[in-house]
Specification:
The chain has 185 residues and is α+β, with helices and mostly antiparallel strands. It has one domain: 3-Layer(aba) Sandwich (Aminopeptidase). 22% of the residues lie in helices and 27% in strands. It has five helices and eight strands, in the order ββαββααβαβαββ. It has an eight-stranded mixed sheet with strand order 1-2-3-4-5-6-8-7, sandwiched between helices. A hairpin with an 8-residue loop joins strand 7 and strand 8. The chain is elongated.
Length: 185
């Protein structure tokens, strides 16, 4: 576990660790897409010890249970992705070659969820960097419909690629052999 963030404005220190699907389920209701990721290659979570403060009375209840406050999921890539094919010059390869290349070289950040009480303090950026660092492939990608409104993937050091149409999500990618997520600001 890694401690981060000063605790003067948080109820407890934040810890980061590898997670599981059950950690994702704790926050899935806060994501704008109703379905779960199709595949799971890794999960990173941010937790804090619940101070046990009763919101109604501001008194400490003393529960002290670990609370999942943010989660990010790394998945296997989808077979078809027009922007990926353009970025990596795969358009002229057959379907089998494209998916074989993607499975060998790419992992996809498929979900990043931060509990509303803990948004805007940098948790998503840290989790994205941790997913990038823990990936076993050269490239990590993400597609985000919210990419036009929130630059969280860019803040984690990923390259932004505008889609061919405004109806498509923004595409992000990083080459782990050229830029490590730890060195991205």
């Amino acid at each position: 576990m890694i401690h981060v963030f000063p605790t003067d404005f948080l109820p407890a220190p934040v810890h980061f660790r590898a997670g599981s699907a059950s950690d994702y389920r704790a926050l899935e209701r806060f994501h704008y897409l109703p379905q779960r990721p199709a595949t799971w290659a890794g999960v990173r979570v941010a937790t804090c010890v619940d101070a046990g403060i009763d919101a109604g009375t501001d008194t400490q209840t003393g529960t002290g249970a670990e609370r999942v406050i943010a989660v990010a999921v790394l998945s296997y890539p989808s077979a078809l992705h027009r922007t990926r094919h353009k970025v990596f010059e795969l358009k002229h390869h057959g379907f089998g070659e494209r998916i074989a290349w993607a499975n060998a070289n790419v992992r996809t950040i498929s979900r990043v969820i931060v509990h509303p009480q803990f948004r805007s303090i940098g948790l998503a950026r840290v989790l994205i960097k941790q997913l990038i660092d823990s990936a076993t492939t050269r490239y990590v990608e993400a597609s985000a419909r919210m990419g036009r409104a929130h630059p969280l993937f860019e803040r984690a050091g990923m390259h932004r690629v505008e889609p061919a149409s405004a109806a498509e999500p923004v595409y992000y990618w990083i080459d782990r052999t050229r830029t490590t997520a730890q060195s991205a600001s």
